[in-house]
Write a structure and sequence with these properties.
The protein is of the alpha/beta class. It has a single domain, classed as Dihydropteroate synthase-like (TIM Barrel, Alpha-Beta Barrel), CATH 3.20.20. 43% of the residues lie in helices and 13% in strands. The protein has eleven helices and eight strands. The protein has an eight-stranded parallel barrel, surrounded by seven helices. The two termini are 13 Å apart. The structure holds 6-hydroxymethylpterin-diphosphate.
Length: 291
């Protein structure tokens, strides 16, 4: 059914089209947001840590996400949950390298969730398509890696570092500050030859934000789309959903997360980063068909 719907011509869709045109992204006819399925190769992720510590468990999970309809896989070896400790480069690389080695063989769109240029560089050499940097490409080395490659990029906003970001997040005007950060970084990257069509911007839900900040940022998704790059929204199982529902257990936040994904799609998100691919996709398809 969704194959017959026409793309909406927003910045988000332009980015989605760019991604779909790349050789690995040849799944045509998609008009809804792309679904980025999360593959956390960590012992301690807030949402699902410790489940994918063997290569076979990780590969099975990745296969399942693709079978469920994920358009992109996002592989990460370091948790960025509030209070998370830094992971040394070699330990992070040990966690992700064999999985990347396997997944690049599948010829599926592959994203690396890492804030370390050393890991980005090695993963690019192995063939990952997208660098997802929760520190928003503030390091010059990460910027150079992008400008010297054809990779896509997710610029995410975070206030502080994972270790301290939720201690006391403060903004004079959260939406304006996040928007300013994303706009400036996008400009810096485009000045270095990185086309905005390769870039997704992400307000960074839960990264140095209170519930009030997150709600304001969510309402502003259409404004972020005006920056000229697609918007990625990642709220899946997050504490924002837990706070709205008064649920501590991330697994009890799935239904709320799916509703948030549907709302984000309606507001023009180009990519949704989710743990629960099938359920999210079902909700989006039914929503598109009935709305
Ligand atoms: N959220 C998480 C990790 N990476 N990347 C982007 N671009 N946007 C996000 O919202 C985002 C992200 C946190 O989720 P998860 O990976 O499940 O948890 P953890 O960081 O504990 O591994």
């Amino acid at each position: 059914m969704q194959q017959h719907l026409q793309p909406k011509e927003t910045g988000g869709w332009k980015t989605a089209r760019f991604l779909l045109q790349r050789p690995r992204f040849q799944r045509t006819g998609r008009t809804r947001p792309l679904i980025m399925g999360v593959v956390n190769l960590t012992p301690d992720s807030f949402s699902d840590g410790g489940r994918l510590l063997s290569l076979s468990a990780a590969v099975d999970h990745a296969r399942q996400l693709l079978d469920e309809g994920a358009d992109i896989l996002d592989v990460g070896g370091e948790s960025t949950r509030p209070g998370a400790p830094d992971v040394p480069v070699e330990e992070e690389w040990r966690r992700v390298c064999q999985v990347i080695e396997e997944l690049v063989k599948w010829n599926v769109p592959l994203s690396l969730d890492s804030l370390k240029p050393e890991i980005m560089e090695r993963a690019l050499d192995m063939g990952v398509d997208i660098l997802n940097d929760v520190t928003g490409f503030q390091s010059q080395r990460a910027q150079r890696l992008l400008s010297c490659s054809q990779a896509g990029a997710v610029i995410m906003h975070m206030q502080g570092s994972p270790r301290s970001m939720q201690l006391n997040p403060e903004y004079a005007d959260c939406v304006a500050e996040v928007q300013g950060f994303l706009k400036n970084t996008l400009q810096t990257l485009t000045q270095q030859g990185v086309s905005s069509e390769r870039v997704l911007v992400d307000p960074g839900f839960g990264f140095g934000k209170t519930l009030e900040h997150n709600v304001a940022l969510f309402a502003a998704i259409p404004d972020f789309s005006q920056l000229g790059a697609g918007v990625l929204v990642g709220v899946s199982r997050k504490s924002m959903i837990g706070q709205l529902l008064d649920r501590k257990d991330p697994l009890q936040r799935i239904h709320g997360s799916i509703q948030a994904a549907v709302v984000a799609a309606g507001k023009g998100a180009a990519v949704l980063r989710v743990h629960d691919v099938r359920a999210t996709l079902d909700a989006l398809i039914v929503n598109d068909s009935l709305i």
